[in-house]
Amino acid sequence: MGSLISAPPLVTTHLETPVGEMVAVTDDRGLHLFEFSDRTALPTEMRRIQKRFGAVAEGTTPMADEVARQMAEYFAGSRTTFSLPILQRGSPFTARVWAALVEIPFGETRSYGQVAAGIDAPTAVRAVARANGANTVAIIVPCHRVIGADGSLTGYGGKLWRKRWLLDHEQRSRTLF
Domains of the chain: which residue ranges? Predict the structure, then answer.
């Protein structure tokens, strides 16, 4: 089992949200995955985590409780940023894209081209789109805030109706701040 690394056990917790059930995979160090339970890529993402860390148990952790608390505040319109340790893994380029996503302000959007330019890779629009799609921490790493250059809603693994709902929710909530 040379592919497994020594780490605390991972736990899967299911959370009900206004946009459907979500799955959080946590340990005592942070959040590894936060996805919509009906996302097509979820089984593949879970296999990748299990290959790296071993079996994932069902239950809860203090970190999952914190994810639930912060998400409840987000959906109530009282939280615009998250303070959770995110432990998803990707290439250095993908990690740069994810870091750029976190910098998109609540209630605002950016095009894939704007994200690419923001990480000093203006010709890497397609690579930015792939990295955006590889994000396994929905909402908290706000890939839903990335739209087409023409303002259209494009490619969202959590389904376009959710992307629209999340963007509308953030616009409504912005008026509270």
Answer: 10-76, 92-174
Among candidate residues 31, 56, 143, 166, the one labeled active-site is 143
CATH number attached to the domain at 10-76: 3.30.160
pTM score, whole prediction: 0.91
CA atoms of 22 and 42, how far apart (whole Å)? 10
Place of tokens 């706000």: 142
Q: 99 CB contacts (<8 Å, ≥6 apart)? A: none
Q: Which residue has the higher pLDDT, 80 or 53?
A: 80
DSSP letter at 58 equals: E
Catalytic residue check, 108: no
pLDDT of residue 49: 93
Q: Which CATH architecture has domain 92-174?
A: Orthogonal Bundle (1.10)
CB distance 59 to 9 below 8 Å: no
pLDDT over 60 at 2, yes or no: no
At residue 7, the pLDDT reads 57
pLDDT band at 4 (very low <50, low <70, confident <90, very high): low
3-state secondary structure at position 26: strand
Cα distances from 108 to residues 40, 57, 90, 91, 104, in angstroms, run 27, 36, 25, 26, 7
